[in-house]
Structure formats: C-alpha cells, structure tokens
Amino acid sequence: MQDSMSNSEIEVTDVLVSIIVPVHNAARYLDKTISMVNNQTYRDYELILVDDASTDDSVEQIEKARQKYNISSKRIRVISKKVNEGAASARNTGLKYARGRYIAFLDVDDVWHDFKLEEELKFMEEKSAAFVFTAYEFGDENARPTGKIVSVPETLDYKRALSRTIIFTSTVLFDTQKIDKSLLKMPHIASEDTATWWRILQKGYVAYGYNKVTTIYRRPAKSLSSNKFVAIQRIYNLYRQVAHLSVISSVLHLFSWAVRATLRRLIVKERR
User: By CB distance 3.0 to 4.6 Å, which of 65, 66, 75, 190 could disulfide with 34?
Assistant: First the structure.
C-alpha cells in the first residue's frame, strides 16, 4: 500500500482538507480513527496515514478498515516509511504528499467529533484566518470524555503563546493559500508541535481559537500528573533553542508558564 506519488504529480485543490496522521504500532486505534474521519460531515478530505516503520499489523488494519467502510483508495492513502523517525518526521512526510489547500494534523489515538472539520472551516472563513485551533476535552484511556475541558482564547499571538502551551496538535487547521506550507514542517526536537506554532506566530501570524470542543485528547489517568519535570525541561529548552531567550528571560517565562498551567488545571471546566 505504499504511495509512490511524486510531488510533481500532486495538485492542490481549493476545498480539499489533507488530514495527516502519524502511525507507529497503532493497529488497535486504526479502525476507530478511519471510521471517525469517514463520519466527518465535511466530505472533501483525504486521509494520509504515514506508517512510521510499524512492527505490528498497522498497515493491514488500515486496508481492512478501508474495505470495511468502503472508502476509496484515492481518499485514504498510506505512506510507508522504512525507518522509524518519530511523529515530527512522519508529519513532514505527510506534508510532502498532501494535495489539499487545508492541512489538519490528527494523532491516531485522539478522537474528533463528526462536526470538527465543517465547523472549524466555517470559523476559519469567518475570521479570514490562516491558522485556527479549537477547545478540547480530556478523555480516559478508552477516549471516554472526562468532563475536563480546555477552553481557548479568541486569538493568540507570539508573545502570548510563549506563556501558555494551549494549542493542541489534533485541533489545528491551516490554510496553505495564506501560510506557506514550509512553515508547517516540524523540527526534530522535543515538543516539536509547540516549536512549530511558535515559529509560525513569530512570522506575524495570529492563531484564532474556536472555543468549542471538537476533539477528545486520549490520556490514561496515570499520565495526567506524570513527567512534570520532563515537561518543564522541554518548555525551558524551547525558550532557549526556539525563542532564543536569555537564561533569565527563559526562567521568567517558565515561571509564568508554570503558573498558567497550574491555574488551568485548577479551573478547567467540568461538563455538567
């Protein structure tokens, strides 16, 4: 199922959304992911699944799901990598093959509501935006909603983005007629998604937040409070390596980030 289409054969269309999904040993999620995308109310999409050298039967499960849901091979495409290089590289590979004007990223274990693309595209058009993102809700290990919702601001510029990591990868949408696709290419560093958002905003773009839950972020309970030190180290490294802040400025920004992250956990909305 390897897609061998060259860049010269790819034609960008004005209504197509290219959904890029890194896949690595994700066989247990793929039926749900493919069914969920196929149930989107917005129908002009292509699903690009980048298999990152999986050692399980991920590729076979993709084909089974494609046949099960009677999805055209033109709508669902598999790019097979021979070497496992991580999610950032997989997304970058997907970008090279994307034919759509619009680019959406989706992690294979996250869940979209069926209105996600349709409503986000309408919001993007209303705001004449190049970059939008949405609110999301934490789910448990089975993606069951927990009621813990992360709301998003109306807009986010570079300065404000430095003090909060609120843009969740599976909620973003980009218009490549307004933003160069090269800016979406992710670096090979920890927290590559946040680094990418910062780089885009550094160029003067403003991200617009659609404050409605469109996505469920699957997180096992044990991971919610784990690896805090790792997260802090990653953010500090972003301040130094991506934002190029001084040590003192990085520490001050890190303190602001930590305060906001703590407050967000304390006041996160609970669904009634």
Answer: 65
